[in-house]
Amino acid sequence: MNMASIGILFLFFIVIRAQTEGKSFVKVECKTGNVGQYGQQSMLDCVVTTSEEVKEPKITVVAWKKKGSEDALDETLLVFHKGKTTGQPGYRFAESSWNDRNMNVSLLITNTTMVNSGDYKCSVMTDSGDDITETSLRVTAKYNKPTIRSIPVNITGREDVTLICSSVGGYPKGRLRWFDEHNKEWTASSEMEAEQTNDGLFKLSSKLSLLKNSIFSKYTCVVFNSSGGKEDEVTLEIPDTAASEGHGGEKGSDQISKIVAPVVVIGSLIVGLLLALLIHRRRSQRDHQEVPTCELDAEQGGLVETYKEHGNGTV
Ligand SMILES: *[C@@H]1O[C@H](CO)[C@@H](O)[C@H](O)[C@H]1NC(C)=O
Ligand SMILES: *[C@@H]1O[C@H](CO)[C@@H](O)[C@H](O)[C@H]1NC(C)=O
């Protein structure tokens, strides 16, 4: 008897729970993977959904907060409460004339900066139930057109040069690459540094060293974003005089040496041959003249040896 009544009570309780839960079925659903562009508007897209039984739900509270990292407190950005909307400057409802019957509670960030990247909480209370959901924002920034400066400022072609390419204002960390006028890549000979500026963005700079005799007529520095997409580029034209005296000059001297080298080799061969011929002729002439002397000397005995030694020494 007692057990039965407890059982009935329990069932009753479950049914009531299920009914009220069904009735108060309110959810805040947010789009995932929100990406914002630095300096532009970003939206955290969230809507309140209710079960079918809920007719004309009315929102009583909306609170948008940015989650604090570790021990930092959550920061309240936008609140709707008691019919009034308050918030920090730069944050508002994405719906321009939002009211408590509008289930689109998306948050609009009017001017996105790096501090806006992170996790957010959206709490909603309605006359039919409450919910709280988290969402996040990833901020990216496009790198500015790079600039190239050279050390020394004037490229003469008579001294080595360092080119420095820089691009600022990007996020996340990207890459600078170098190409010459034939689109041959020189990045391997360069050195890149990435520095985070106060605004949280990256400044990329890359140094490319050029030897005075191998300076091309054009150098292009290209900035790529973190996922390898090309963002912008700049080309430095080397003054003709420097490039021709430098790289062009190398070409010229290459051609000259291509002509000069065989000429020198052939010339010295000819000269050598002539010399050898001359010496040979002289020697054979001398031998011809000497032979009789030797023969004559031979008759005189010991003198022959001294003559031979003398001859060997001179030839
Ligand atoms: C919410 O409102 C914003 C601004 O009008 C709109 O861009 C967005 O698509 C809406 N979200 C949904 C889920 O309807
Ligand atoms: C990188 O650039 C590509 C092509 O422009 C673009 O589709 C991509 O979204 C960019 N990625 C980032 C992280 O900015």
Structure, described:
The chain contains three helices and 18 strands. The chain is rod-shaped, with a radius of gyration of 45 Å. The chain starts with a helix and ends with a helix. β5 and β6 form a beta hairpin. The strands form five sheets. The protein has a six-stranded mixed β-sheet, with no helix packed on it. It has a four-stranded antiparallel β-sheet with strand order 12-13-16-15, with no helix packed on it. A three-stranded antiparallel β-sheet has the order 3-9-8, with no helix packed on it. With 315 residues, it is of the alpha+beta class. The chain folds into two domains: 3-140, Immunoglobulins (Immunoglobulin-like); 147-252, Immunoglobulin-like (Sandwich). One 2-acetamido-2-deoxy-beta-D-glucopyranose binds next to loops.
Structural category:
alpha+beta
Overall mean pLDDT stands at 83
Number of strands: 18
The radius of gyration computed from the alpha-carbon positions, rounded to a whole number of angstroms, is 45 Å
H/E element order: HEEEEEEEEEEEEEEEEEEHH
From the spread of the alpha carbons, the general shape counts as rod-shaped
Helix content: 25-40%
Total number of helices: 3
Strand line-up in the sheet with most strands: 2-11-10-5-6-7
> If you consult CATH, what is the topology of the largest domain?
Immunoglobulin-like
From the coordinates shown, what is the CATH architecture of the largest domain?
Answer: Sandwich
Ligands (ions, cofactors included): 2-acetamido-2-deoxy-beta-D-glucopyranose
Largest sheet: 6 strands, mixed
What proportion strand? 35-45%
Query: Are there runs of 5+ residues with pLDDT below 50, and where?
Result: 245-255, 290-315
CATH class wording of the largest domain:
Mainly Beta
Oligomeric category? single chain
**CATH 4th-level superfamily of the largest domain:** Immunoglobulins
